[in-house]
Design brief:
This protein is an all-alpha fold. Helix content is about 75%, strand content about 0%. The chain starts with 16 loop residues before the first helix and ends with a helix. Keywords: Membrane, Sugar transport, Symport, Transmembrane, Transmembrane helix, Transport.
């Protein structure tokens, strides 16, 4: 289902320097998140880190006869990675309420502070409990940032640039992963390399904390909280126009309707909210069960399993991180031209082929105790890069962009909370279970993830509507009420209101 670009022309707006700068500063929340994703895999493969916190894993790693697929299977080691996401699930609820009551800007500021305190605890950790508690604080920072940043960018961006600007969040996330992989490569053999790597997380957090002092609050948030004059002035400032009356009236009208909803979470249970809720939840499922986390979290571990030495595995992780960043640039320039559905459908085919090739080679040639032949190792590395590139210009950015733009104002913060918390929950599940799944399923784990990718492709072709160029305050009328399936939900609610 395609939507005409005329919707984007309804509201006059320019891409001002103010909007670009605010979007980039806010997107440093993605850099903060990405650095953590990238750093954990490298740190958990460092011998000095394993000897201090996970000695049993260190012994298994260096045991000559240890099973290739099971050498890193340890629940506490996985908890080091996954505890952040469990904390983020809980904190998303508080972030949602903070967004609505105090604004998007202060929520972003709180995210940076939580993250900074978590970095201090992790870098100075003397025992496992201190390490895990630091991860929990980092999780609070991630929960607050992932709740506020995509919403902030969607609300300040002009309609025709909304996709590209929102992808900046994912772009900086990939830069964070790449930067973390490079840091891990150079600190891997240092006696305190893991402390240096973890302390590096403070750099994006500090930038976000200082930069957030410069950004504006969104007009929607200001008007929603009763600051109409400030909202109008801010709208004029970020649009670069004096005459913004049409957009201001639209926000004002949407805000009045939203204020009639006293319990937005309860309103999410209405049938008219099902399209957005189901779409957001499924996107988060596909995003996390595409298999991307096994590469982003555990890339060095995965490459060591295939027979790469420690330094070679970290270098391979740098390579995939570079591909991830470059490919995300494709989404920045194409998402508002080609549309969301096209990118998802193309990537589903590409990612499926890459996963099947990887799984097939490992199933055929990597046994319990042998080393994967060099030629096949290189083929697998290429296949993983193909997979990462497809993810980077599709699910990676669109998993955050689409949920941030499809909810009406009355359920926007509550709806985005559900999307972010679903993402964090699924991330926790995959992060906590991947090494165990790798041990028990072996190469078949790649076929499991490829099956999820097939489901995503079918969903994108048959059910997902196109949302490019549509005002976020007109999404219900111009997208969902015209969709072949979801329009039935609005018909049911309309009948109930008449009764």
């Amino acid at each position: 289902m395609a939507i005409s670009n005329s919707a984007a022309e309804d509201l006059p707006a320019k891409l001002t320097t103010q909007v670009a700068v605010c979007s980039i500063i806010a997107a440093f929340g993605g850099l903060m998140f990405g650095y953590d994703i990238g750093i954990t895999g490298g740190v958990t493969s460092m011998d000095v880190f394993l000897k201090k916190f996970f000695p049993s894993v260190y012994v298994k790693k260096h045991h000559a006869r240890e099973d290739n697929y099971c050498k890193f299977d340890d629940q506490l080691l996985q908890l080091f990675t996954s505890s952040l996401y469990l904390a983020a699930v809980v904190c998303c609820l508080f972030a949602s309420m903070c967004c609505k009551r105090y604004g998007r800007k202060i929520t972003i500021q709180l995210a940076s502070l939580f993250f900074l305190f978590g970095v201090i605890l992790n870098a100075a950790a003397m025992n496992l409990m201190m390490l895990i508690f630091g991860r929990i604080l980092l999780g609070a920072g991630v929960g607050f940032a992932n709740q506020a940043v995509p919403l902030f960018i969607s609300e300040i961006a002009p309609n025709k640039y909304r996709g590209g600007l929102n992808v900046c969040f994912q772009l900086l996330l990939t830069v964070g992963i790449l930067f973390a992989n490079i840091v891990n490569y150079f600190t891997a053999t240092h006696p305190y390399g893991w402390r240096i790597s973890l302390a590096g997380e403070a750099i994006p957090a500090l930038f976000l904390a200082l930069g957030s002092l410069l950004i504006v609050e969104t007009p929607t948030s200001l008007i929603e909280r009763g600051y109409n004059d400030r909202g109008l002035a801010t709208l004029q400032k970020i649009r670069g126009l004096e005459d913004v009356q049409k957009e201001y009236d639209e926000i004002l009208n949407t805000t009045k309707l939203a204020k009639q909803i006293k319990h937005p979470f309860k309103n999410l249970m209405k049938r008219s909210s099902w399209p957005q809720l189901v779409t957001s939840a499924l996107l988060q499922f596909f995003l996390e069960f595409s298999g991307i986390n096994m590469i982003m979290f555990y890339a060095p571990i995965l490459f060591q399993t295939m027979g790469f030495h420690s330094d070679a595995s970290l270098l391979s992780a740098v390579m995939t991180g570079t591909i991830n960043t470059v490919a995300t640039l494709v989404a920045v320039f194409c998402v508002d031209r080609l549309g969301r559905r096209f990118l998802l459908i193309e990537a589903a085919i590409q990612m499926f082929i890459a996963q099947v090739v990887t799984g097939g080679i490992l199933a055929a040639f990597l046994k319990s105790t042998n080393v994967l032949p060099k030629t096949y190792s290189h083929v697998v590395l290429i296949a993983i890069c193909v997979f990462v590139s497809g993810f980077a210009w599709s699910l990676g950015p669109l998993g955050w962009l689409i949920p941030s733009e499809i909810f009406p104002l009355e359920t926007r913060t509550a709806g985005l909370f559900c999307a972010v918390s679903m993402n964090m929950l699924f991330t926790f599940i995959t992060a906590q279970s991947f090494l165990t799944m790798l041990c028990h399923m072996r190469a078949m784990i790649f076929f499991f993830f490829s099956g999820c990718i097939v489901m995503m492709g079918v969903y994108a072709i048959a059910i997902l509507p196109e949302t490019k160029g549509v005002s976020i305050d007109q999404m219900n009328d111009k997208v969902w009420k015209k969709h072949w399936l979801w329009k039935r939900c609005f018909r049911h609610d309309h009948q109930q209101s008449r009764d």
